[in-house]
Specification:
By secondary structure, the protein is of the alpha/beta class. 38% of the residues lie in helices and 24% in strands.
């Protein structure tokens, strides 16, 4: 059993993989501080839900964009699973070339997304990850990550809206039934949804305009689900793309 851990700014996603098959996934909040014991207990309890124990864990791979979580999480893995985790970062073999100006600045999550998209769906491919931030990364037909784009995630933008405007309430991020809103809550939902969707479509269109080759668009991330079915510019929505990419990277670096 391979345990894949994606530590994001908002959530930590854990995947239990048997070979390339994802047996189960779990999502917990990226709340700090937690101790190594707390992380270790969480891991063993989640394994137990599937009749698994530390003895079933062959290896652990971690992708993290939250450095301050890593010390405790790594300690919990070592103590409770008795495995030194493989950490996605500089020097890891992904099978992709990183063609941006400073390869070390590419986020571990973006590298895993790109590996999953390229090896599962082929290239060239534009990978869109809808999370706390929204990222777009382009992988050409040769497997080179050539460029990327980072912008605000819809929930991050929405939080800024209701935190800065005293009379605006916090609303659920969802597709509204109509853009013809007749109350504040629906007006906010419609504005957030269609404003963000329009930005996504314009961004993809600009990539098509500036890249002289056809490519697939693969979307992932927890918030991608609400947009993927409402635009023809996204070809596939794969919520487990990063875990699949981590499995690909682990196979290339198996110890």
């Amino acid at each position: 059993m391979l345990v894949a851990v994606d530590i994001g700014n908002t959530n930590i996603v854990l995947g239990f993989l048997d070979g390339s098959r994802i047996v189960a996934t779990h999502r917990i909040s990226t709340r700090t501080p937690r101790t190594a014991d707390e992380y270790g207990l969480l891991l063993t309890q989640l394994l137990a839900l599937h009749d698994l124990s530390a003895d079933d864990v062959e290896d652990v791979i971690v992708s993290s964009v939250v450095p301050k979580v890593m010390h405790s999480f790594r300690g919990g893995i070592i103590t409770y699973l008795r495995v030194e985790p493989m950490v996605v970062g500089p020097g890891i073999r992904s099978g992709l070339r990183i063609g941006i100006e400073d390869p070390k600045t590419l986020g571990a999550d973006c590298l895993c997304d790109c590996a999953g998209a390229f090896y599962l769906y082929g290239g060239p491919v534009l990978v869109a990850d809808f999370g706390t931030a929204t990222t777009f990364n382009y992988v050409d037909a040769s497997g080179t990550i050539t460029c990327g784009l980072i912008t605000t995630g819809i929930r991050t933008g929405a939080s800024a809206l209701w935190d800065s405007a005293a009379q605006l309430p916090e609303v659920e991020i969802t597709r509204p039934t109509t853009i013809l809103a007749r109350d504040t809550r629906t007006a906010m939902q419609a504005g957030l949804y269609y404003g963000f969707l329009g930005g996504v479509e314009r961004t993809i269109a600009q990539f098509h305009e500036e890249i002289d080759e056809d490519f697939h668009v693969i979307a992932t991330g927890g918030l991608g689900r609400i947009f993927a079915d409402d635009t023809d510019l996204i070809d596939v929505y794969d919520p487990e793309l990063i875990l699949k990419g981590m499995a690909v990277i682990h196979a290339r670096n198996r110890r």
